[in-house]
Amino acid sequence: MSENSARQSPAFRFMIYVLLSLGACGMLLPFAWLLRSSLCDEKSVIKPLESLGDFIPPGIHPGNYAEVFRAVPFLRYLLNTVFITICVVGGSVISSSLCAYAFAFCRVAYKKRVFYCVLATMMLPGVVTMIPVFILFREIGWFDTFKPLIIPAFFGNAFAIFLFRQFFMGLPFELVEAARIDGATNLEIYWRVVMPLSRPVIITVAIFAFMGTWNDFMGPLIFLNSQERWTLQLGLNSFMGQINNQWHLLMAAAVMVLVPVLAVFFFLQRYFIRGIALTGLKG
Amino acid sequence: MAREDRRDFWLFLSPWLIGFLFFGAGPIFASLLLSLTDYSIFRPPRYVGLQNYKELLAGDPLIYKAFWNTLFYTVFAVPLGTAAALLVAMLLNQKVRGLSVWRTIYYLPCVVSGVAMGVLWRWIFNPEIGLANALLRPFLRVFDLPDPKWLLDPNLAKPAYVLMSLWGIGGGMIIFLAGLQGVPTHLYEAAEIDGAGRWSKFWNVTLPMLTPVVFFSLTMGFIGSFQIFAQAYVMSGRGVANSTLFYVLYLFDQAFRYFRMGYASAMAWVLFGIVLIVTVIQFSLAKRWVFYAGGES
After folding, report:
1. Chain B closest-CA separation from residue A82 CA (Å)
2. pLDDT of A218-238, one tens digit each?
3. A181 interfacial to chain B (CB closer than 8 Å)
4. What are B172-209's pLDDT values in tens digits?
5. Residues 52-71 of A with CB under 8 A from B
6. How far is A163 from chain B (nearest CA, A)?
7. Residue A273 counted as domain residue
8. DSSP bridge partners of B156
9. Same domain? A160 vs A37
10. Min distance A138 CA to chain B CA atoms (Å)
Protein backbone atom coordinates (compact mmCIF):
# COMPACT_ATOMS: atom_id res chain seq x y z
CA MET A 1 0.00 0.00 0.00
CA SER A 2 0.99 3.61 -0.44
CA GLU A 3 2.61 5.46 2.38
CA ASN A 4 0.38 7.76 4.35
CA SER A 5 -0.21 10.92 2.33
CA ALA A 6 -1.98 12.91 5.07
CA ARG A 7 1.29 13.85 6.72
CA GLN A 8 3.13 14.86 3.58
CA SER A 9 3.90 18.55 3.49
CA PRO A 10 2.72 20.61 0.48
CA ALA A 11 6.34 21.31 -0.44
CA PHE A 12 7.07 17.56 -0.56
CA ARG A 13 3.98 16.93 -2.71
CA PHE A 14 5.01 19.76 -5.00
CA MET A 15 8.47 18.26 -5.41
CA ILE A 16 6.93 14.92 -6.37
CA TYR A 17 4.93 16.53 -9.17
CA VAL A 18 7.94 18.55 -10.35
CA LEU A 19 10.10 15.44 -10.58
CA LEU A 20 7.37 13.42 -12.27
CA SER A 21 6.77 16.19 -14.80
CA LEU A 22 10.47 16.48 -15.62
CA GLY A 23 10.67 12.73 -16.19
CA ALA A 24 7.50 12.76 -18.26
CA CYS A 25 8.98 15.52 -20.44
CA GLY A 26 12.00 13.33 -21.00
CA MET A 27 9.74 10.47 -22.05
CA LEU A 28 7.54 12.55 -24.35
CA LEU A 29 10.14 14.83 -25.92
CA PRO A 30 11.51 12.20 -28.34
CA PHE A 31 7.93 11.50 -29.49
CA ALA A 32 7.31 15.22 -29.97
CA TRP A 33 10.55 15.51 -31.92
CA LEU A 34 9.53 12.53 -34.06
CA LEU A 35 6.12 14.01 -34.84
CA ARG A 36 7.55 17.47 -35.45
CA SER A 37 10.19 16.18 -37.86
CA SER A 38 7.61 14.11 -39.73
CA LEU A 39 5.62 17.26 -40.48
CA CYS A 40 8.55 19.44 -41.58
CA ASP A 41 9.43 20.15 -45.19
CA GLU A 42 12.74 19.25 -46.77
CA LYS A 43 14.43 22.51 -45.73
CA SER A 44 13.11 23.08 -42.22
CA VAL A 45 13.83 19.53 -41.10
CA ILE A 46 17.59 19.96 -41.52
CA LYS A 47 17.71 23.49 -40.10
CA PRO A 48 19.36 23.50 -36.65
CA LEU A 49 17.12 24.73 -33.83
CA GLU A 50 18.23 28.24 -32.83
CA SER A 51 15.52 28.93 -30.28
CA LEU A 52 12.59 27.23 -28.61
CA GLY A 53 10.24 28.68 -31.21
CA ASP A 54 11.99 26.75 -33.96
CA PHE A 55 10.56 23.56 -32.53
CA ILE A 56 7.30 24.42 -34.24
CA PRO A 57 8.05 24.16 -37.97
CA PRO A 58 7.20 27.13 -40.22
CA GLY A 59 4.70 25.02 -42.15
CA ILE A 60 2.93 21.72 -41.50
CA HIS A 61 3.34 19.15 -44.26
CA PRO A 62 1.09 16.11 -43.76
CA GLY A 63 1.81 15.28 -47.39
CA ASN A 64 5.05 13.66 -46.18
CA TYR A 65 3.01 10.65 -45.14
CA ALA A 66 1.65 10.13 -48.64
CA GLU A 67 5.12 10.72 -50.03
CA VAL A 68 6.41 7.71 -48.05
CA PHE A 69 4.06 5.43 -50.00
CA ARG A 70 5.55 6.76 -53.24
CA ALA A 71 9.16 6.58 -52.08
CA VAL A 72 9.04 2.94 -50.89
CA PRO A 73 6.57 0.02 -51.24
CA PHE A 74 5.20 0.89 -47.82
CA LEU A 75 1.77 -0.61 -48.48
CA ARG A 76 3.36 -3.95 -49.38
CA TYR A 77 5.39 -3.91 -46.13
CA LEU A 78 2.24 -3.07 -44.21
CA LEU A 79 0.16 -5.88 -45.74
CA ASN A 80 2.97 -8.40 -45.17
CA THR A 81 3.30 -7.36 -41.54
CA VAL A 82 -0.47 -7.47 -40.96
CA PHE A 83 -0.70 -10.95 -42.49
CA ILE A 84 2.18 -12.35 -40.45
CA THR A 85 0.91 -10.72 -37.27
CA ILE A 86 -2.64 -12.07 -37.63
CA CYS A 87 -1.34 -15.61 -38.17
CA VAL A 88 1.03 -15.42 -35.20
CA VAL A 89 -1.60 -13.98 -32.86
CA GLY A 90 -4.14 -16.66 -33.82
CA GLY A 91 -1.57 -19.43 -33.63
CA SER A 92 -0.19 -18.52 -30.24
CA VAL A 93 -3.60 -17.98 -28.64
CA ILE A 94 -4.94 -21.36 -29.80
CA SER A 95 -1.85 -23.51 -29.23
CA SER A 96 -0.90 -21.96 -25.89
CA SER A 97 -4.40 -22.06 -24.45
CA LEU A 98 -4.73 -25.75 -25.39
CA CYS A 99 -1.49 -26.57 -23.57
CA ALA A 100 -2.55 -24.48 -20.59
CA TYR A 101 -5.90 -26.31 -20.46
CA ALA A 102 -4.01 -29.58 -20.08
CA PHE A 103 -2.05 -28.16 -17.15
CA ALA A 104 -5.06 -26.60 -15.46
CA PHE A 105 -7.83 -29.19 -15.87
CA CYS A 106 -6.52 -32.63 -16.89
CA ARG A 107 -6.37 -34.81 -13.79
CA VAL A 108 -2.88 -36.17 -14.24
CA ALA A 109 -0.52 -36.71 -11.33
CA TYR A 110 2.70 -35.46 -12.95
CA LYS A 111 1.29 -32.34 -14.61
CA LYS A 112 2.93 -29.92 -12.19
CA ARG A 113 6.37 -31.35 -12.87
CA VAL A 114 5.80 -31.14 -16.63
CA PHE A 115 4.62 -27.55 -16.21
CA TYR A 116 7.86 -26.60 -14.48
CA CYS A 117 9.75 -28.16 -17.38
CA VAL A 118 7.80 -25.94 -19.78
CA LEU A 119 8.62 -22.88 -17.65
CA ALA A 120 12.28 -23.88 -17.58
CA THR A 121 12.41 -23.71 -21.38
CA MET A 122 11.91 -19.94 -21.08
CA MET A 123 15.57 -19.89 -20.05
CA LEU A 124 16.64 -21.42 -23.38
CA PRO A 125 18.89 -18.91 -25.08
CA GLY A 126 17.34 -17.68 -28.32
CA VAL A 127 20.78 -16.80 -29.68
CA VAL A 128 21.87 -20.43 -29.46
CA THR A 129 18.82 -21.89 -31.21
CA MET A 130 18.72 -19.19 -33.88
CA ILE A 131 21.39 -20.60 -36.21
CA PRO A 132 20.21 -24.26 -36.29
CA VAL A 133 16.61 -23.12 -36.74
CA PHE A 134 17.75 -20.95 -39.65
CA ILE A 135 19.57 -23.90 -41.23
CA LEU A 136 16.55 -26.17 -40.66
CA PHE A 137 14.13 -23.78 -42.37
CA ARG A 138 16.57 -23.15 -45.17
CA GLU A 139 17.04 -26.89 -45.80
CA ILE A 140 13.28 -27.47 -46.12
CA GLY A 141 12.97 -24.58 -48.55
CA TRP A 142 11.25 -22.09 -46.28
CA PHE A 143 13.89 -19.38 -46.71
CA ASP A 144 12.38 -16.16 -48.07
CA THR A 145 8.83 -17.23 -47.17
CA PHE A 146 6.61 -16.17 -44.26
CA LYS A 147 6.53 -19.72 -42.89
CA PRO A 148 9.55 -19.47 -40.53
CA LEU A 149 7.94 -16.40 -38.98
CA ILE A 150 4.46 -17.91 -38.65
CA ILE A 151 4.61 -21.68 -38.18
CA PRO A 152 6.54 -21.70 -34.84
CA ALA A 153 3.70 -19.69 -33.26
CA PHE A 154 1.42 -22.71 -33.66
CA PHE A 155 3.57 -24.77 -31.31
CA GLY A 156 2.86 -22.90 -28.11
CA ASN A 157 4.98 -20.45 -26.21
CA ALA A 158 6.05 -20.99 -22.61
CA PHE A 159 5.20 -17.48 -21.44
CA ALA A 160 1.73 -17.54 -23.03
CA ILE A 161 1.09 -21.01 -21.57
CA PHE A 162 2.06 -19.61 -18.17
CA LEU A 163 -0.34 -16.66 -18.51
CA PHE A 164 -3.21 -18.89 -19.66
CA ARG A 165 -2.64 -21.45 -16.93
CA GLN A 166 -2.58 -18.81 -14.18
CA PHE A 167 -5.91 -17.50 -15.44
CA PHE A 168 -7.49 -20.94 -15.86
CA MET A 169 -6.55 -21.88 -12.29
CA GLY A 170 -8.67 -18.97 -11.10
CA LEU A 171 -11.79 -20.07 -12.98
CA PRO A 172 -14.54 -21.79 -10.94
CA PHE A 173 -13.65 -25.46 -11.14
CA GLU A 174 -17.32 -26.47 -10.61
CA LEU A 175 -18.15 -25.28 -14.12
CA VAL A 176 -15.67 -27.75 -15.59
CA GLU A 177 -16.90 -30.49 -13.25
CA ALA A 178 -20.51 -29.83 -14.19
CA ALA A 179 -19.67 -30.03 -17.89
CA ARG A 180 -17.83 -33.31 -17.27
CA ILE A 181 -20.87 -34.80 -15.51
CA ASP A 182 -22.92 -33.81 -18.55
CA GLY A 183 -20.53 -35.99 -20.55
CA ALA A 184 -18.56 -33.24 -22.30
CA THR A 185 -15.11 -34.15 -23.62
CA ASN A 186 -12.10 -32.07 -22.75
CA LEU A 187 -12.09 -30.46 -26.17
CA GLU A 188 -15.74 -29.45 -25.73
CA ILE A 189 -15.08 -28.08 -22.25
CA TYR A 190 -12.09 -26.16 -23.58
CA TRP A 191 -14.02 -24.63 -26.44
CA ARG A 192 -17.49 -24.12 -24.89
CA VAL A 193 -16.76 -23.47 -21.20
CA VAL A 194 -13.19 -22.33 -20.61
CA MET A 195 -12.38 -20.18 -23.63
CA PRO A 196 -15.60 -18.09 -23.53
CA LEU A 197 -14.74 -17.18 -19.92
CA SER A 198 -11.15 -16.29 -20.74
CA ARG A 199 -11.51 -13.08 -22.70
CA PRO A 200 -9.12 -11.03 -20.50
CA VAL A 201 -6.22 -13.46 -20.77
CA ILE A 202 -6.85 -14.07 -24.48
CA ILE A 203 -6.53 -10.33 -25.00
CA THR A 204 -3.36 -10.16 -22.89
CA VAL A 205 -1.69 -12.99 -24.82
CA ALA A 206 -2.88 -11.57 -28.14
CA ILE A 207 -1.38 -8.16 -27.30
CA PHE A 208 1.98 -9.67 -26.39
CA ALA A 209 1.99 -11.74 -29.59
CA PHE A 210 0.98 -8.70 -31.61
CA MET A 211 3.67 -6.44 -30.16
CA GLY A 212 6.36 -9.11 -30.44
CA THR A 213 5.57 -9.87 -34.07
CA TRP A 214 4.92 -6.34 -35.28
CA ASN A 215 8.16 -5.12 -33.72
CA ASP A 216 10.29 -8.17 -34.59
CA PHE A 217 13.43 -7.37 -36.55
CA MET A 218 15.86 -10.28 -36.21
CA GLY A 219 13.35 -12.88 -37.53
CA PRO A 220 12.43 -11.08 -40.77
CA LEU A 221 16.03 -9.95 -41.19
CA ILE A 222 17.27 -13.54 -41.19
CA PHE A 223 14.48 -15.27 -43.07
CA LEU A 224 13.23 -12.76 -45.64
CA ASN A 225 15.23 -11.74 -48.66
CA SER A 226 13.08 -10.36 -51.51
CA GLN A 227 11.85 -6.86 -50.96
CA GLU A 228 8.25 -7.77 -51.83
CA ARG A 229 8.13 -9.95 -48.71
CA TRP A 230 9.67 -7.43 -46.31
CA THR A 231 7.95 -6.33 -43.13
CA LEU A 232 7.58 -2.76 -41.89
CA GLN A 233 10.60 -3.02 -39.60
CA LEU A 234 12.82 -4.25 -42.44
CA GLY A 235 11.44 -1.55 -44.71
CA LEU A 236 12.05 1.16 -42.13
CA ASN A 237 15.62 0.00 -41.60
CA SER A 238 16.42 -0.03 -45.31
CA PHE A 239 14.62 3.29 -45.86
CA MET A 240 17.05 4.85 -43.41
CA GLY A 241 19.96 3.77 -45.59
CA GLN A 242 18.60 5.51 -48.67
CA ILE A 243 17.07 8.75 -47.44
CA ASN A 244 19.84 11.24 -48.15
CA ASN A 245 18.94 13.77 -45.46
CA GLN A 246 15.20 13.43 -46.10
CA TRP A 247 14.66 12.90 -42.41
CA HIS A 248 11.10 14.18 -42.61
CA LEU A 249 10.09 11.20 -44.77
CA LEU A 250 11.91 8.73 -42.56
CA MET A 251 10.19 10.14 -39.48
CA ALA A 252 6.80 10.01 -41.20
CA ALA A 253 7.45 6.35 -41.97
CA ALA A 254 8.51 5.73 -38.36
CA VAL A 255 5.30 7.36 -37.09
CA MET A 256 3.21 5.07 -39.30
CA VAL A 257 5.10 1.99 -38.11
CA LEU A 258 4.51 3.09 -34.50
CA VAL A 259 0.87 4.15 -34.59
CA PRO A 260 -0.75 0.67 -34.59
CA VAL A 261 1.34 -0.40 -31.61
CA LEU A 262 0.59 2.81 -29.72
CA ALA A 263 -3.12 2.48 -30.51
CA VAL A 264 -3.28 -1.11 -29.24
CA PHE A 265 -1.40 -0.06 -26.12
CA PHE A 266 -3.71 2.89 -25.46
CA PHE A 267 -6.97 1.05 -25.88
CA LEU A 268 -6.04 -2.25 -24.26
CA GLN A 269 -3.70 -0.89 -21.62
CA ARG A 270 -5.15 -2.61 -18.57
CA TYR A 271 -4.73 -6.07 -20.10
CA PHE A 272 -1.18 -5.21 -21.01
CA ILE A 273 -0.13 -3.73 -17.67
CA ARG A 274 -1.55 -6.76 -15.87
CA GLY A 275 0.61 -9.07 -17.98
CA ILE A 276 3.77 -7.04 -17.32
CA ALA A 277 3.16 -6.87 -13.57
CA LEU A 278 2.63 -10.64 -13.55
CA THR A 279 6.01 -11.28 -15.18
CA GLY A 280 7.70 -9.45 -12.33
CA LEU A 281 5.76 -11.02 -9.52
CA LYS A 282 6.50 -14.57 -10.50
CA GLY A 283 10.22 -13.90 -10.19
CA MET B 1 -12.28 -40.54 -17.01
CA ALA B 2 -8.75 -40.41 -15.67
CA ARG B 3 -7.53 -42.42 -18.66
CA GLU B 4 -9.21 -40.00 -20.99
CA ASP B 5 -7.53 -37.15 -19.10
CA ARG B 6 -4.13 -38.76 -19.46
CA ARG B 7 -4.63 -39.15 -23.19
CA ASP B 8 -5.93 -35.60 -23.60
CA PHE B 9 -3.13 -34.19 -21.46
CA TRP B 10 -0.46 -35.39 -23.89
CA LEU B 11 -2.70 -34.68 -26.89
CA PHE B 12 -3.26 -31.04 -25.87
CA LEU B 13 0.39 -30.70 -25.00
CA SER B 14 1.59 -32.22 -28.28
CA PRO B 15 1.98 -28.91 -30.14
CA TRP B 16 4.34 -27.68 -27.48
CA LEU B 17 6.22 -30.99 -27.35
CA ILE B 18 6.72 -31.04 -31.12
CA GLY B 19 7.72 -27.39 -31.06
CA PHE B 20 10.17 -28.02 -28.26
CA LEU B 21 11.74 -30.85 -30.23
CA PHE B 22 12.16 -28.82 -33.42
CA PHE B 23 12.74 -25.30 -32.13
CA GLY B 24 14.18 -25.98 -28.67
CA ALA B 25 15.98 -29.19 -27.74
CA GLY B 26 16.91 -30.18 -31.30
CA PRO B 27 18.52 -26.85 -32.20
CA ILE B 28 20.37 -26.72 -28.87
CA PHE B 29 21.92 -30.10 -29.60
CA ALA B 30 22.59 -29.16 -33.25
CA SER B 31 24.19 -25.90 -32.19
CA LEU B 32 26.59 -27.73 -29.92
CA LEU B 33 27.66 -29.95 -32.82
CA LEU B 34 27.79 -27.03 -35.24
CA SER B 35 30.12 -25.13 -32.94
CA LEU B 36 32.67 -27.92 -33.54
CA THR B 37 32.53 -27.54 -37.32
CA ASP B 38 33.48 -25.21 -40.11
CA TYR B 39 30.18 -24.69 -41.94
CA SER B 40 29.27 -22.06 -44.51
CA ILE B 41 25.83 -23.49 -45.49
CA PHE B 42 27.03 -23.73 -49.09
CA ARG B 43 29.40 -26.64 -48.43
CA PRO B 44 28.88 -29.58 -46.06
CA PRO B 45 30.11 -29.00 -42.51
CA ARG B 46 33.67 -30.06 -41.70
CA TYR B 47 34.58 -31.21 -38.20
CA VAL B 48 37.28 -29.01 -36.67
CA GLY B 49 37.13 -29.94 -33.00
CA LEU B 50 37.61 -27.03 -30.63
CA GLN B 51 39.17 -24.83 -33.32
CA ASN B 52 36.31 -22.28 -33.20
CA TYR B 53 36.59 -21.89 -29.45
CA LYS B 54 40.36 -21.52 -29.72
CA GLU B 55 40.05 -18.81 -32.35
CA LEU B 56 37.41 -17.11 -30.23
CA LEU B 57 39.57 -16.98 -27.14
CA ALA B 58 42.95 -16.38 -28.73
CA GLY B 59 42.81 -15.29 -32.34
CA ASP B 60 39.99 -12.75 -32.67
CA PRO B 61 40.68 -9.29 -31.25
CA LEU B 62 37.26 -8.04 -32.39
CA ILE B 63 35.47 -10.41 -30.08
CA TYR B 64 37.15 -8.84 -27.08
CA LYS B 65 36.17 -5.44 -28.41
CA ALA B 66 32.57 -6.64 -28.81
CA PHE B 67 32.58 -8.16 -25.34
CA TRP B 68 34.00 -4.99 -23.79
CA ASN B 69 31.47 -2.76 -25.60
CA THR B 70 28.58 -4.93 -24.44
CA LEU B 71 29.89 -5.07 -20.89
CA PHE B 72 30.34 -1.28 -20.78
CA TYR B 73 26.80 -0.74 -22.02
CA THR B 74 25.31 -3.28 -19.59
CA VAL B 75 27.23 -2.11 -16.53
CA PHE B 76 25.89 1.43 -16.94
CA ALA B 77 22.48 0.86 -18.51
CA VAL B 78 21.14 -1.81 -16.15
CA PRO B 79 21.88 -0.31 -12.70
CA LEU B 80 21.01 3.23 -13.85
CA GLY B 81 17.81 2.01 -15.47
CA THR B 82 16.82 0.00 -12.41
CA ALA B 83 17.45 2.94 -10.07
CA ALA B 84 15.51 5.33 -12.32
CA ALA B 85 12.62 2.88 -12.63
CA LEU B 86 12.53 2.46 -8.86
CA LEU B 87 12.59 6.22 -8.31
CA VAL B 88 9.66 6.81 -10.69
CA ALA B 89 7.69 3.95 -9.14
CA MET B 90 8.27 5.38 -5.65
CA LEU B 91 7.11 8.82 -6.78
CA LEU B 92 4.01 7.32 -8.37
CA ASN B 93 3.28 5.39 -5.21
CA GLN B 94 2.84 8.63 -3.19
CA LYS B 95 -0.91 8.74 -3.92
CA VAL B 96 -0.39 11.07 -6.90
CA ARG B 97 -3.32 12.27 -8.95
CA GLY B 98 -3.78 10.78 -12.41
CA LEU B 99 -1.70 7.70 -11.70
CA SER B 100 -2.82 5.92 -14.88
CA VAL B 101 -1.87 8.93 -17.03
CA TRP B 102 1.64 9.10 -15.56
CA ARG B 103 2.02 5.37 -15.91
CA THR B 104 0.99 5.48 -19.56
CA ILE B 105 3.46 8.28 -20.32
CA TYR B 106 6.35 6.48 -18.68
CA TYR B 107 5.50 3.16 -20.31
CA LEU B 108 4.94 4.57 -23.81
CA PRO B 109 8.57 4.26 -25.05
CA CYS B 110 8.55 0.55 -24.21
CA VAL B 111 6.19 -0.30 -27.06
CA VAL B 112 8.51 1.29 -29.62
CA SER B 113 10.29 -1.32 -31.75
CA GLY B 114 14.06 -1.57 -31.73
CA VAL B 115 14.23 -0.40 -35.35
CA ALA B 116 12.04 2.66 -34.75
CA MET B 117 14.06 3.40 -31.64
CA GLY B 118 17.31 3.18 -33.58
CA VAL B 119 15.97 5.40 -36.37
CA LEU B 120 14.59 8.00 -33.97
CA TRP B 121 17.64 8.18 -31.68
CA ARG B 122 20.07 8.29 -34.54
CA TRP B 123 18.18 11.40 -35.58
CA ILE B 124 18.15 12.77 -32.02
CA PHE B 125 21.92 12.26 -31.72
CA ASN B 126 22.69 13.91 -35.06
CA PRO B 127 25.49 16.31 -34.06
CA GLU B 128 24.48 19.27 -36.24
CA ILE B 129 20.69 19.15 -36.41
CA GLY B 130 19.63 16.65 -33.74
CA LEU B 131 17.49 17.31 -30.69
CA ALA B 132 20.12 16.30 -28.11
CA ASN B 133 22.59 18.99 -29.13
CA ALA B 134 19.85 21.55 -29.67
CA LEU B 135 18.93 21.12 -26.01
CA LEU B 136 22.54 21.06 -24.82
CA ARG B 137 23.88 23.96 -26.90
CA PRO B 138 22.81 26.78 -24.57
CA PHE B 139 24.69 25.12 -21.69
CA LEU B 140 27.68 24.20 -23.84
CA ARG B 141 28.01 27.80 -25.00
CA VAL B 142 28.28 29.04 -21.44
CA PHE B 143 31.43 26.98 -20.98
CA ASP B 144 32.56 27.44 -24.56
CA LEU B 145 32.50 23.70 -25.23
CA PRO B 146 32.20 22.15 -28.69
CA ASP B 147 29.13 20.14 -29.70
CA PRO B 148 29.47 16.47 -28.77
CA LYS B 149 29.52 14.15 -31.78
CA TRP B 150 27.68 11.34 -29.96
CA LEU B 151 27.53 8.26 -32.20
CA LEU B 152 30.39 9.57 -34.35
CA ASP B 153 32.68 9.89 -31.34
CA PRO B 154 34.12 6.54 -30.17
CA ASN B 155 34.16 7.79 -26.59
CA LEU B 156 30.58 9.03 -26.55
CA ALA B 157 28.85 6.39 -28.67
CA LYS B 158 28.28 3.92 -25.83
CA PRO B 159 27.15 6.61 -23.35
CA ALA B 160 24.65 7.65 -26.04
CA TYR B 161 23.29 4.10 -26.00
CA VAL B 162 23.03 4.22 -22.22
CA LEU B 163 21.05 7.47 -22.47
CA MET B 164 18.74 5.88 -25.01
CA SER B 165 18.23 2.87 -22.77
CA LEU B 166 16.95 5.14 -19.99
CA TRP B 167 14.06 5.98 -22.27
CA GLY B 168 12.83 2.42 -21.71
CA ILE B 169 12.56 2.31 -17.92
CA GLY B 170 8.75 1.98 -18.09
CA GLY B 171 8.70 -1.81 -17.96
CA GLY B 172 10.76 -1.92 -14.77
CA MET B 173 8.68 0.91 -13.35
CA ILE B 174 5.45 -1.08 -13.71
CA ILE B 175 6.96 -4.13 -12.05
CA PHE B 176 8.25 -1.97 -9.17
CA LEU B 177 4.89 -0.27 -8.81
CA ALA B 178 3.18 -3.66 -8.49
CA GLY B 179 5.82 -4.63 -5.91
CA LEU B 180 5.34 -1.41 -3.93
CA GLN B 181 1.61 -1.92 -3.83
CA GLY B 182 2.26 -5.35 -2.36
CA VAL B 183 4.13 -3.99 0.70
CA PRO B 184 1.69 -4.46 3.61
CA THR B 185 0.48 -1.21 5.25
CA HIS B 186 0.92 -2.59 8.75
CA LEU B 187 4.70 -2.54 8.28
CA TYR B 188 4.60 1.21 7.67
CA GLU B 189 2.27 1.70 10.61
CA ALA B 190 4.58 -0.27 12.88
CA ALA B 191 7.55 1.79 11.65
CA GLU B 192 5.67 5.02 12.33
CA ILE B 193 4.84 3.91 15.87
CA ASP B 194 8.58 3.34 16.33
CA GLY B 195 9.07 6.94 15.20
CA ALA B 196 10.54 6.21 11.79
CA GLY B 197 10.76 9.13 9.38
CA ARG B 198 10.28 9.03 5.63
CA TRP B 199 13.88 8.11 4.87
CA SER B 200 14.04 5.46 7.55
CA LYS B 201 10.77 3.92 6.30
CA PHE B 202 12.22 3.73 2.80
CA TRP B 203 15.49 2.26 3.99
CA ASN B 204 14.09 -0.22 6.53
CA VAL B 205 10.70 -1.18 5.10
CA THR B 206 10.27 -0.39 1.41
CA LEU B 207 13.69 -1.35 0.13
CA PRO B 208 13.99 -4.71 1.97
CA MET B 209 10.46 -5.66 0.86
CA LEU B 210 11.32 -4.74 -2.72
CA THR B 211 14.65 -6.56 -2.96
CA PRO B 212 13.13 -9.61 -4.74
CA VAL B 213 11.75 -7.33 -7.45
CA VAL B 214 15.01 -5.38 -7.69
CA PHE B 215 16.84 -8.68 -8.04
CA PHE B 216 14.46 -9.88 -10.75
CA SER B 217 14.79 -6.57 -12.58
CA LEU B 218 18.60 -6.58 -12.44
CA THR B 219 18.82 -10.19 -13.63
CA MET B 220 16.40 -9.77 -16.53
CA GLY B 221 17.92 -6.41 -17.39
CA PHE B 222 21.35 -7.95 -17.61
CA ILE B 223 20.18 -10.81 -19.81
CA GLY B 224 18.31 -8.41 -22.09
CA SER B 225 20.93 -5.70 -22.47
CA PHE B 226 23.72 -8.18 -23.01
CA GLN B 227 21.83 -9.21 -26.14
CA ILE B 228 21.18 -5.71 -27.52
CA PHE B 229 20.82 -6.01 -31.28
CA ALA B 230 18.10 -4.24 -33.28
CA GLN B 231 18.77 -0.73 -31.93
CA ALA B 232 22.50 -1.12 -32.54
CA TYR B 233 22.07 -2.63 -36.00
CA VAL B 234 19.97 0.36 -37.02
CA MET B 235 21.44 3.22 -35.03
CA SER B 236 25.16 2.99 -35.68
CA GLY B 237 26.02 -0.53 -36.84
CA ARG B 238 29.56 -1.30 -35.79
CA GLY B 239 30.15 2.37 -35.11
CA VAL B 240 33.27 4.48 -35.54
CA ALA B 241 36.35 2.33 -34.77
CA ASN B 242 34.01 -0.53 -33.83
CA SER B 243 32.92 1.49 -30.80
CA THR B 244 29.38 0.07 -30.93
CA LEU B 245 30.16 -3.41 -32.15
CA PHE B 246 28.04 -5.29 -29.61
CA TYR B 247 28.30 -9.03 -29.07
CA VAL B 248 25.11 -10.15 -30.83
CA LEU B 249 25.80 -7.71 -33.66
CA TYR B 250 29.15 -9.38 -34.22
CA LEU B 251 27.56 -12.82 -33.91
CA PHE B 252 24.99 -11.84 -36.54
CA ASP B 253 27.75 -10.65 -38.88
CA GLN B 254 29.67 -13.90 -38.48
CA ALA B 255 26.56 -16.03 -39.11
CA PHE B 256 24.65 -14.14 -41.76
CA ARG B 257 27.18 -11.90 -43.44
CA TYR B 258 30.23 -14.17 -43.55
CA PHE B 259 28.20 -17.40 -43.21
CA ARG B 260 30.55 -18.77 -40.58
CA MET B 261 27.82 -20.83 -38.93
CA GLY B 262 30.20 -22.94 -36.85
CA TYR B 263 32.09 -19.97 -35.46
CA ALA B 264 28.87 -18.06 -34.78
CA SER B 265 27.47 -21.11 -32.93
CA ALA B 266 30.57 -21.18 -30.75
CA MET B 267 30.05 -17.47 -30.10
CA ALA B 268 26.45 -18.15 -29.10
CA TRP B 269 27.56 -20.79 -26.60
CA VAL B 270 30.17 -18.47 -25.12
CA LEU B 271 27.48 -15.78 -24.77
CA PHE B 272 25.15 -18.30 -23.12
CA GLY B 273 27.98 -19.30 -20.79
CA ILE B 274 28.64 -15.69 -19.80
CA VAL B 275 24.99 -14.99 -19.16
CA LEU B 276 24.65 -18.22 -17.18
CA ILE B 277 27.72 -17.52 -15.04
CA VAL B 278 26.64 -13.97 -14.26
CA THR B 279 23.12 -15.15 -13.42
CA VAL B 280 24.49 -17.84 -11.10
CA ILE B 281 26.73 -15.25 -9.42
CA GLN B 282 23.76 -12.94 -9.04
CA PHE B 283 21.70 -15.73 -7.50
CA SER B 284 24.41 -16.66 -5.04
CA LEU B 285 24.99 -13.03 -4.05
CA ALA B 286 21.23 -12.63 -3.76
CA LYS B 287 21.20 -14.72 -0.56
CA ARG B 288 23.04 -11.85 1.14
CA TRP B 289 20.79 -8.99 0.17
CA VAL B 290 17.45 -10.26 -1.13
CA PHE B 291 14.81 -10.53 1.56
CA TYR B 292 11.89 -12.90 1.06
CA ALA B 293 9.03 -11.97 3.35
CA GLY B 294 7.69 -15.53 3.36
CA GLY B 295 10.86 -16.71 5.12
CA GLU B 296 12.11 -19.07 2.42
CA SER B 297 15.37 -18.08 0.84
Report:
1. 15
2. 999 999 999 999 999 999 999
3. no
4. 999 999 899 888 889 988 998 998 888 888 888 998 89
5. none
6. 15
7. no
8. none
9. no
10. 9
Record: contact B12-A101, CB cut-off 8 A: yes
pLDDT average, residue stretch B244-265: 96
Q: Is residue A278 part of a domain?
A: no
> What is the average per-residue pLDDT within A181-188?
94
Q: What are the pLDDT digits (tens) for A51-79?
A: 888 888 888 999 999 999 999 999 999 99
Give the pairing type, strands B37-38 and B46-47.
antiparallel
Who wins on pLDDT, A52 or A170?
A: A170
Q: Is residue A88 part of a domain?
A: yes
Torsion angle of C-alpha atoms B113, B117, B120, B121, degrees rounded to 10: 180
- pLDDT at A7 > cutoff 90: no
Angle ∠(B228,B231,B237) on CA atoms, nearest 5? 95
With CB atoms and an 8 Å threshold, state whether B167 touches A266.
no
ipTM of this complex: 0.91
The closest CB to that of A186, out of B8, B118, B216, belongs to B8
With contact defined as beta carbons under 8 Å apart, do B130 and A49 qualify?
no
Q: Which of B221, B26, B20 is nearest to A157 (CA)?
A: B20
Q: If you measure CA to CA, which chain B residue comes closest to A44? A: B129
A277 and B275 in contact by Cβ < 8 A?
Answer: no
| Beta-carbon separation of A30 and B134 below 8 A | no
- pLDDT band at A279; cut points 50, 70, 90: low
**Residue at A208 is within a domain:** yes
Q: Look at B129 and A46 and tell me if their CB atoms are within 8 Å.
A: yes
Q: Chain A residues with CB inside 8 Å of B269's CB?
A: 128
Domain of residue A230, residue span: 72-242
Instruction: Give the residue from chain A lying closest to B89, CA to CA.
Output: A20
pLDDT at B296: 43
Sort out which chain B residues have CB atoms less than 8 A from A34's CB and list them: 120, 123
Show residues of chain B in contact with A126, CB under 8 Å: 227
CA dihedral A201, A206, A207, A208 (to 10 degrees): 90
Instruction: Give A262 to chain B, closest Cα distance, Å.
Output: 7
What is the CATH number assigned to the segment(s) B61-289? 1.10.3720.10
For residue A210, the distance in angstroms to the closest alpha carbon of chain B comes to 11
Q: How many residues does chain B have?
A: 297
Please report the pLDDT score of residue A282 as a whole number. 45
